[in-house]
Each structure stands twice: as C-alpha cells, then as structure tokens.
C-alpha cells in the first residue's frame, strides 16, 4: 500500500479517540479476486470485529484505455469498442455512442431504426436486470434465482444471435441507424418472449420478496437517501429507490421513448430491498415498452444518409441515455477530422460506486457483499 493510500485512508476513517491500528482493528482486503465483487474490484475494509469502520475501493485492474483508443480510431471503427465496457448491457452502450456521433453529424436515425433500437435496448435492460438478480441473490445465499433468471435471459440472447449473430458484445447499432433489417419472425419471437417471461417475474418474487432470510439480509441495509444519491451523483435504480423520480427516458426523451406509455418505479427507504423492488418493477415496465414498440414498428429505411467518410464539423456534444445501471453519457469532441479529438464516457457503475463507503459504514462484512451486489456494478465499465 502506498504512503498516499495510508495517509488518506487511515486518517479519514479513524476517529478522534482511535489509533490508526489498535488491537481491535483489522484491515482486510476483499478482492480483487473475490467473487462477490462482481469483477476485479479490491475493497480495503477497516474492521472492528465484523463491524465496518471504513472502506476504500481500489480500481483499475480491468483498465484497457478505451477512451484513449477512440482518439486513434475513426468514428465507425471505435463503435464496437464501447460494447466491451458494460459487457452485460452492450446494446445500451452502442445506442449512447451512436446518438452522440449522430448529434455531431446533425443526422437522425429513421423512425423504423429508432423503434428497432428501442426493442433491442429494452430487451437488453431485461437481460441486464436478470443477470443482476441471479448473481445478487447468489451472493446473499439464494441459488435458485440464478437458474431461473439465466434460463429466461437465454431467450433474449437467442433473439440477439438471430438478429446480428452475437449474444453478448452485439455491435447491434450503427451510426445513422441499424445495419441489419429485422429477420423473418423477429416480431413473433419478441412477442413470444414477452408472453413467456411476464409470469416468470412473478416467480422471481415468489422466491424472494417475502422470503424471511432475503428480507432480513436486505431491509435497512445499505441505506442511501434521495438527497445522498443526488450529492454523490448516483443515478438509475439506486437513485429511484431513494424516492427520486428521475429517468432520462422521460426527463430527456431520446430514440422515440416519448411515444411509449410506461411508469417510473420508485422506492421509499433507499435500502437494498427497495433497489430490488425497483428493478423488478423496471422489468415489467420494459416489457410494456417492448410490447408497444415491437407491434408498431413503422415501414421505411433503417439507415439515415451518412457520409462514407465521417468528418463532423468542429464542435463537441454530450449525450446521455438511461442505461440499465443509470445515466450513461458520452462527451465527444470533433476537430473536423475522421477521428474524434476526445471521447469521455460517464459510466453509471463508476459514479455509483462512490457511494459504497457511505452505504456500508457501521454495517457488517456480510452486508458489504449485499451492498456491492445491489449497486449492480460491472468493472469493465468502472475501469474502462
């Protein structure tokens, strides 16, 4: 541990009457190989027995320099790289990047492409929440939800595979629209999935919502009020669980989201249980959006008129979307060449992780596992 880490971490977490390391204190490394850190996250825990006195997150183990790579690729060449950040929500990553470059080019995807984008993005939100629920429940000790959620998520991945040939890092969208037209039977497959999975969400709740162990492990754990969320810049289901009704699909509509009828689920207590309830409700709202969108896809082209060699005018844009984990923003600067001068990503996992220390102070070590899970972080997005 470096001298700067020692001075910053210990001085901040030690109280006025405490020594840095007395007989009752223990500094413990949780990760970066710990399975409950959802990737390669190292959490330095300062403990008094089982009680957490303070934490420090050490990140960077999965850093790949994605933003710097963008400066050495054309706008089109960089498009597939964004899928590798939040790799369980690759479709959302691609949508945000495409919207940002389209704004730079002053073009708009055709309505048909926008509807297809909405269907695939909401399927992606479902898949991301299902993977979160299965792994979060497994962290806390419930194994059965993992089998349920992965069974149902598989149906989404099959649709992706038939649509664009990939299941995880899909590269589904292109700047200006979509490269692929819907395959024969696409609408039927999506409608079949909606009918299939709607009752399954009730099964998830039967397993967990009134389960005594689940409730005791999640209620009152990792509380983060709406004010604290705003102070930390937290977004997504974590923010909405604190009672703040903020969703970019409603607040700043993009890609035809203003055409669809859906609600913004919110919680009251801002604890781990509320975040679970909000994400369960979000799955149902995603199914509402998918049902409306897939049955009203208009005819027409799937690509706007995009120049073969993209040279946006000199300028800069910031475009953000409501990704499954929160606000995903892209700041893109153009110097008039074929390559972006600067690309900066605002990933929700990175920002939401700031709140971990606030959420776990005074809790137990086992609660740290529950809180990391309830934040729904992906380290590919945190480290980039």
Report on this model:
The protein is of the alpha+beta class. The chain has two domains: 3-58, no CATH class; 66-383, Cytochrome-c3 Hydrogenase, chain B (Orthogonal Bundle), CATH 1.10.645.10. Helices cover 48% and strands 12% of the residues. The chain has 16 helices and eight strands. It has helices spanning 3-13, 66-70, 75-78, 90-105, 111-140, 144-164, 186-208, 212-218, 226-232, 237-241, 248-251, 272-294, 348-353, 356-360, 365-375, 379-383, and strands at residues 25-30, 42-48, 51-58, 173-174, 177-178, 315-323, 326-334, 342-346. The strands form three sheets. It has a three-stranded antiparallel sheet. A three-stranded antiparallel sheet has the order 6-7-8. Helix 5 packs antiparallel against helix 6 (144-164) and helix 6 runs antiparallel to helix 7 (186-208). The chain starts with a helix and ends with a helix. Mean pLDDT is 87; it is low at 1-17.
Strand order of the largest sheet: 1-2-3
Report how far apart the termini are: 23 Å
Instruction: Give the percentage of residues in beta strands.
Output: 5-15%
What's the CATH superfamily of the largest domain, by name?
Cytochrome-c3 Hydrogenase, chain B
Quick structural overview:
The protein is of the alpha+beta class and 384 residues long. The protein is 48% helix and 12% strand.
Indicate the topology.
Layout: H1 3-13, E1 25-30, E2 42-48, E3 51-58, H2 66-70, H3 75-78, H4 90-105, H5 111-140, H6 144-164, E4 173-174, E5 177-178, H7 186-208, H8 212-218, H9 226-232, H10 237-241, H11 248-251, H12 272-294, E6 315-323, E7 326-334, E8 342-346, H13 348-353, H14 356-360, H15 365-375, H16 379-383
Antiparallel strand pairs: 1-2, 2-3, 4-5, 6-7, 7-8
């Amino acid at each position: 541990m470096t001298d700067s880490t020692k001075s910053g971490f210990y001085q901040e977490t030690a109280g006025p009457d405490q020594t840095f390391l007395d007989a009752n204190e223990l500094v413990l490394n949780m990760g970066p190989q710990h399975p409950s850190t959802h990737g390669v996250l190292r959490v330095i825990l300062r403990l008094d027995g089982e009680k957490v006195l303070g934490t420090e997150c050490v990140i960077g183990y999965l850093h790949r320099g994605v933003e710097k790579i963008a400066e050495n690729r054309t706008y089109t060449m960089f498009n597939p790289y964004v899928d590798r950040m939040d790799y369980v929500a690759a479709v959302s990553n691609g949508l945000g990047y495409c919207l940002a470059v389209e704004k730079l080019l002053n073009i708009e995807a055709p309505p048909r492409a926008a509807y297809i984008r909405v269907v695939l993005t909401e399927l992606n939100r479902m898949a991301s929440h299902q993977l979160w629920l299965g792994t979060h429940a497994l962290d806390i000790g419930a194994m059965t939800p993992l089998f349920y959620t992965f069974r149902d998520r598989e149906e989404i991945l099959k649709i992706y595979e038939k649509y664009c040939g990939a299941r995880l890092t899909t590269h589904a969208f292109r700047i200006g629209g979509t490269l692929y037209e819907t395959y024969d039977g696409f609408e039927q497959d999506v409608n079949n999935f909606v009918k299939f999975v709607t009752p399954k969400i009730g099964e998830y709740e039967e397993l967990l919502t009134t389960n005594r162990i689940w409730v005791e492990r999640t209620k009152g754990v990792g509380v983060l009020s709406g004010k604290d969320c705003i102070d930390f810049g937290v977004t997504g289901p974590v923010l909405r669980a604190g009672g703040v009704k903020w969703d970019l699909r409603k607040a700043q509509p993009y890609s035809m989201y203003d055409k669809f009828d859906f609600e913004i689920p919110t919680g009251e207590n801002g604890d781990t249980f509320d975040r679970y309830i909000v994400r369960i409700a979000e799955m149902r709202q995603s199914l509402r959006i998918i049902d409306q969108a897939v049955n009203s896809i208009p005819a027409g082209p799937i690509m706007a008129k995009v120049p073969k060699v993209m040279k946006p005018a000199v300028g800069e844009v910031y475009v953000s979307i409501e990704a499954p984990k929160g606000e995903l923003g892209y700041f893109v600067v153009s110097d008039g060449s074929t390559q972006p001068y600067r690309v900066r990503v605002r990933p929700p996992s990175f920002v939401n992780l700031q709140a971990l220390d606030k959420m776990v102070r005074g809790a137990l070590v086992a609660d740290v596992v529950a809180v990391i899970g309830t934040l729904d972080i992906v380290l590919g997005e945190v480290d980039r």
